[in-house]
Design a protein that fits this description.
Blueprint (H helix, E strand, L loop, with lengths): L1 E4 L6 H9 L9 E5 L5 H5 L5 E5 L4 H11 L4 E5 L3 E3 L3 H11 L5 E6 L9 H16 L2 E3 L6 E5 H7 L10 H10 L4 E11 L5 H23 L10 H13 L11 H11 L3 H11 L4 H28 L12
Parallel strand pairs: 1-2, 2-3, 6-9
Antiparallel strand pairs: 4-8, 5-9, 6-8, 7-9
Helix pairs in contact: 8-12, 9-10, 9-12
C-alpha cells in the first residue's frame, strides 16, 4: 500500500491505522512524505510502516516513488485523507482476481466525512459520494485516491506524469483506458476528510477546471469518462451569469438570472432526490447554494483555461510519450 503525504497531520494517523486494520494481510505499507512541514512524519513513525521522505515534488512524484520502492504484485494507492473500510483491500484483490482483464479498480468514498468540519465539507462529501456511486461500473477514468492496480499493468503503462500536480489522474486514465478496462466499485470504500473552507473549495475547482481544457477536454466526452458535474447544471450556471449584463439594458431582464438559478436547482433530478432523501427538504436550498457556487468556479475556470489555451504557448500539453 502506497500513501503519499504532504502536511496531513490531522488525518494521517487514522489513514495509517485503517491500512493496518485491513482484513486482508497487507504485504507492506509505505508512506511517502513529500516534504511535509507539519508533524505528520513524526506521527507516521509511531506505526509499523515504512516512511520514505523526500523533497516536495508533488503527488505524482510521491506515488511513483512509492511504486518504485514497493515490492508487492498489486499496488494499492491511498490518499492521506481517506481512511479505508476494513474490507477494502480484500475486495480490491478479489475483484482483480475475478476479472483478470481489468487494468485497475478504484472505490467510492462514504457519504459522511472522516472528520465533520462543518457545512462546506458536508456538502462536498455528500456530492462526491453521489456522483461516484452513480457512475459505478466499467469506466474510462481512474482516481488514484483509493485505487488498486497490478504492478505489471502499472509498469506497462508507465509512471504518473510528474510535471502535473492537478489532473494527473485524467492524464493517466487516457493511457490506461486505451489498453485496459477500469472498474469503479462500491466494494472499495472509505471515509474522506475533504476541504472544509468555501474559499479553498472554489479555488481548487477553479484551478482544476482550467486544466480540464488542457488535459481533459476530449476525455470528458468519451464514453465511460467520469463526470462529477452534469452538463445541464454547467449550462444553467453559464446562462445565469451570462444573462446579468442584460440588466444594464432593462430591469425586466432580472427574470433571466432567476430562471437560470431555478433551472440549475432542478438540472439534476437524481441528485436532488438523493439529497432530500438523505438530508431532508430543508437542507436542499443549502446544498443548491454551495453547488451553484462550485459550478460558478467551474465555469470561470473553463473560461480562463480556454483563454490560456489560445494565448499561452505550451498550455495544451501533447499526449504522453508512453501512450
Amino acid at each position: 500500500m502506497i500513501i503519499p503525504n504532504y502536511n496531513y497531520e490531522k488525518t494521517i494517523a487514522a489513514v495509517v491505522e485503517s491500512a493496518l486494520a485491513q482484513t486482508y494481510p497487507v504485504h507492506e505499507v509505505l508512506v511517502v512524505d513529500d516534504g511535509s512541514s507539519d508533524r505528520s512524519p513524526e506521527i507516521v513513525r509511531r506505526y509499523p510502516v515504512r516512511l520514505i521522505t523526500q523533497r516536495n515534488g508533488g503527488v505524482s512524484v510521491a506515488r511513483n516513488r512509492g511504486a518504485a520502492e514497493s515490492t508487492g504484485e498489486i499496488l494499492f494507492f491511498l490518499d492521506s485523507d481517506i481512511a479505508l473500510d476494513p474490507d477494502a483491500v480484500a475486495n480490491a484483490v478479489a475483484l482483480l482476481a475475478e476479472q483478470p482483464d481489468l487494468g485497475c479498480v478504484h472505490g467510492v468514498v462514504g457519504k459522511r466525512a472522516l472528520f465533520d468540519d462543518g457545512p462546506v465539507e458536508r456538502y462536498r462529501v455528500l456530492h462526491e459520494y453521489w456522483w461516484r456511486r452513480r457512475a459505478t461500473g466499467r469506466v474510462r477514468t481512474v482516481f488514484f485516491a483509493m485505487c488498486a492496480i497490478r504492478r505489471e499493468v502499472y509498469e506497462e503503462i508507465g509512471p504518473l506524469d510528474e510535471t502535473l500536480r492537478e489532473s494527473e489522474d485524467v492524464e493517466y486514465s487516457e493511457r490506461l483506458a486505451a489498453k485496459y478496462p477500469i472498474l469503479l466499485t462500491e466494494r472499495i470504500t472509505g471515509r474522506h476528510d475533504d476541504v472544509e473552507r468555501l474559499g479553498a473549495l472554489l479555488g481548487e475547482q477553479y484551478r482544476r477546471s482550467q486544466l480540464l481544457v488542457a488535459f481533459a477536454g476530449a476525455h470528458r466526452f468519451s464514453p465511460g469518462a467520469l463526470k462529477a458535474n452534469r452538463m445541464p447544471g454547467v449550462l444553467a450556471t453559464a446562462a445565469t451569469w451570462g444573462s446579468l449584463p442584460l440588466l444594464l439594458l432593462t430591469p425586466k431582464a432580472a427574470v433571466l438570472p432567476a430562471l437560470g438559478v431555478a433551472w440549475f436547482a432542478v438540472a439534476d433530478p437524481g441528485l436532488a432526490r438523493f439529497v432530500v432523501r438523505d438530508q431532508g427538504l430543508r437542507y436542499y436550498p443549502v446544498f443548491v447554494g454551495y453547488h451553484f457556487l462550485l459550478h460558478t468556479a467551474l465555469v470561470a475556470g473553463v473560461a480562463r483555461g480556454a483563454v490560456r489555451a489560445l494565448t499561452e504557448r505550451g498550455f495544451r500539453r501533447p499526449r504522453h510519450p508512453a501512450s
